[in-house]
């Protein structure tokens, strides 16, 4: 490496990032989505993918990174400061610069100010009726496992949302639990380059936000103070999560037991959800039963100046009062009896880590594809 001194300033050449690639596979292994996948898998290839696995490839070449699946790709170019979206099915692509995306985000947030004010009023009204609390716990379990030949440690993160009705003094809780298997950064060759790329991207976006004002700053006032406290605690505890997340098992439900965080269900053991025919039959029954009501509410809405939202509100209220509760599937009954109910279970795995050269075709738009206007650019013109 050669160094030169020009005008008393030491110039050090910028080191190019080495090539690196890996894959991520996302599978739904339990809960309602897994049941739907089993029921509708014969009719929809996309539904089968929920349990079979959705695969993405991440390819890093110098200052360009592409995230690719069978239908789409997103290419980030730090030198050109652009995002490119590629649609393999339509054989099209669209490009937006970092500056244009920041401007579109800012414009979108400005449009939302009125809605945000309304949301804040609703939150204040809800807080007068119910009290919400958040609990966060991040612990290293001491468990270790070799995944794809890489030594990892387990960190369990449990986020609990507790809602208490002030009038009845009754409360309920919803849990999100993650079993995260973390490897030391040096254990995955090439991952250092990915970290450097993300740092560069983060620094560039931070400069843009500082110059134009942070479009997300207004959102902070909309969050519950206790949620903000939980987020601050999460930032403090993040040290335990540093490293490469080789595998993550996420569960969403009630009364989740951290001791079962790393257990993965077999989708074949998940009871099937309703078939497409059953769903259509129930929809037809509901449509026939509500037809007269819809017509009456439609006429009422027309007389009130076309306020169709009033009719929608009326239908929701009636359904809440009269409709029977949805039937509990056998899996939910069994889980409830055991004290734990998992509504959704998902596994994300990283693998196929490689330092082999990444082809130019991975980080460029395929030849012959037609350019379209990026949707966020359209929003800027409105």
Description:
With 382 residues, the chain is of the alpha+beta class. Helix content is 37%, strand content 32%. The protein is built from ten helices and 14 strands. It has helices spanning 32-40, 45-52, 98-111, 113-129, 191-212, 225-237, 276-303, 308-322, 330-337, 375-381, and strands at 4-6, 9-11, 20-31, 54-61, 64-68, 72-77, 82-87, 92-97, 130-147, 150-165, 171-183, 244-254, 341-354, 370-371. It is globular and about 65 Å long.
Which characteristics define this entry?
single chain; 382 residues; alpha+beta; twelve-stranded mixed β-sheet; two-stranded antiparallel ribbon; 10 helices; 14 strands; 32% strand; globular; disordered N terminus
Count the helices. How many?
10
Give the biggest beta sheet: 12 strands, mixed
Low-confidence stretches: 1-14, 292-337
What portion of the residues fall into strands of 2 or more residues?
25-35%
Structural class: alpha+beta
Overall radius of gyration: 25 Å
Q: Number of DSSP strands?
A: 14
Query: Element order, helices and strands?
Result: EEEHHEEEEEHHEEEHHEHHHEEH
Q: Termini distance?
A: 51 Å
Mean pLDDT: 74
Cα shape: globular
Helix fraction bin? 25-40%
> Biggest sheet: strands side by side, in what order?
9-10-11-12-13-3-4-5-6-7-8-14
Short structural summary:
The chain has 382 residues and is an alpha+beta fold. The chain is built from ten helices and 14 strands.
SSE diagram, text form:
Blueprint lengths: L3 E3 L2 E3 L8 E12 H9 L4 H8 L1 E8 L2 E5 L3 E6 L4 E6 L4 E6 H14 L1 H17 E18 L2 E16 L5 E13 L7 H22 L12 H13 L6 E11 L21 H28 L4 H15 L7 H8 L3 E14 L15 E2 L3 H7 L1
Parallel strand pairs: 8-14
Antiparallel strand pairs: 1-2, 3-4, 3-13, 4-5, 5-6, 6-7, 7-8, 9-10, 10-11, 11-12, 12-13
């Amino acid at each position: 490496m050669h160094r030169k001194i020009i005008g008393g300033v030491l110039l050090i050449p910028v080191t190019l990032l080495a090539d690196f690639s890996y894959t991520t596979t996302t599978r739904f292994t339990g809960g309602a989505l897994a049941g739907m996948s089993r029921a509708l898998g014969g009719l929809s290839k996309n539904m089968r993918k929920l349990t079979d696995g959705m695969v993405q490839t991440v390819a890093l070449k110098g200052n360009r990174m592409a995230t690719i699946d069978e239908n789409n790709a997103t290419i980030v170019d730090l030198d050109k400061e652009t995002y490119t979206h590629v649609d393999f099915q339509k054989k099209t692509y669209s490009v937006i610069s970092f500056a244009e995306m920041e401007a579109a985000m800012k414009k979108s947030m400005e449009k939302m100010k009125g809605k945000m004010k309304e949301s804040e009023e609703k939150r204040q009204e809800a807080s007068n009726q119910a009290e919400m609390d958040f609990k966060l716990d991040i612990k290293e379990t001491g468990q270790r496992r070799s995944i794809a030949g890489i030594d990892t440690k387990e960190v369990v993160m449990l986020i609990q949302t507790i809602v208490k009705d002030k009038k009845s003094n009754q409360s309920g809780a919803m849990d999100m639990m993650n079993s995260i298997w973390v490897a030391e950064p040096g254990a995955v060759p090439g991952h250092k380059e990915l970290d450097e790329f993300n740092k560069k991207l983060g620094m560039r976006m931070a400069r843009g936000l500082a110059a134009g004002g942070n479009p997300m700053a207004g959102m902070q006032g909309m969050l519950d103070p206790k949620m903000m406290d939980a987020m601050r605690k999460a930032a403090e505890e993040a040290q335990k999560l540093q490293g490469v997340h080789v595998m993550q098992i996420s569960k969403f439900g009630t009364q989740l037991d951290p001791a079962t965080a790393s257990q993965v269900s077999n989708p074949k053991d998940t009871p099937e959800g309703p078939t497409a025919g059953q769903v259509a039959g129930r929809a037809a029954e509901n449509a026939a039963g509500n037809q007269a009501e819809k017509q009456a509410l439609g006429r009422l809405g027309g007389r009130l100046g076309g306020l169709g939202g009033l009719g929608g509100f009326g239908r929701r209220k009636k359904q809440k009062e009269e409709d029977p509760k949805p039937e509990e599937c056998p899996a939910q009954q069994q889980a409830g009896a055991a004290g734990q109910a998992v509504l959704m279970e998902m596994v994300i795995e990283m693998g196929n880590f490689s330092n082999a050269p990444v082809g130019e075709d991975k980080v460029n738009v395929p030849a012959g594809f037609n350019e379209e206007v990026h949707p966020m650019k359209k929003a800027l013109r409105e």
